[in-house]
Amino acid sequence: MSVRILLEDDVRLDAALEKTGMYLQDGVTEALRVWFKKLKIPVLPVPQPPARG
User: I need a labelling partner for 49 at 20 to 30 A (CA). Which of 3, 6, 16, 18 fits?
Assistant: First the structure.
């Protein structure tokens, strides 16, 4: 996934990652999980690719 964010959010993201010691992937994953929980989005099963035959 690739996204563009506003410069002000990028600066805040960098500060949060530095403060927590997290890497970008971990910080984004944590933020998404908090957001999903707030919105009550359930954990859904991940679709499996079709078997090669």
Answer: 3
